[in-house]
Amino acid sequence: MDVDLYDEFGNYIGPDLESDDEEEETYKDAEPEQEEYDGEEAMDEDGNVDDEPALMAVVLHEDKKYYPLASEVYGPDVETIVQEEDTQALDKPLIEPVKKHKFQVKEQDLPETVYNMEFLADLMDTSHLIRNVAIVGNLHHGKTNFVDCLVQQTHPDIRPLEGKFLRYTDTLITEQERGVSIKAVPVTLVMQDVRNESYLMNIFDTP
Hints:
Oligomer: single chain
Structural class: alpha+beta
Mean pLDDT: 79
Largest sheet: 3 strands, mixed
Protein name: Tr-type G domain-containing protein
Number of strands: 3
Region (Disordered): 1-49
GO molecular function: GTP binding; GTPase activity; U5 snRNA binding
Domain 116kDa U5 small nuclear ribonucleoprotein component N-terminal: 4-111
Domain Tr-type G: 130-207
């Protein structure tokens, strides 16, 4: 370091130096050499198209394609709906736990049966012991009388009047007067099979 070029405060007092502006001007004047592109794709020795110029191209983030479109995956004939917002509530889980319903007898003054009503309510919780039966047939073929026989077998206090049929499922007055069922009525009973295993029978008496 030459001490004569600087004063006591460290300021440069020597001869004038070339400024940086001149260097920038000379750099701007020099045009960079660019290869001329004749419009033909680059070919390798085997005659295949060289993809290197395409890979070197600058692609913006919004122009990039990360995933295929729905029309490309499923075809143009399939209608796709994109739902961006999550409509499921936050307090609702994705996989809800299975809720087991417990039935209880709330109604009072029920008719007397050969089984306990609590036992009937417990059978409602066991789906493999439930049987759903619909009695279907032509007019006056004894569908309602068959249901009356099942009701009398399970309800000892329910008996028909002398010279009349019970017609337990005919609840309408017009049905009782005409002796013809007009609407379907379900009846739930507890019946046993030949092995004395109890089943909950949901019997549907149809017109």
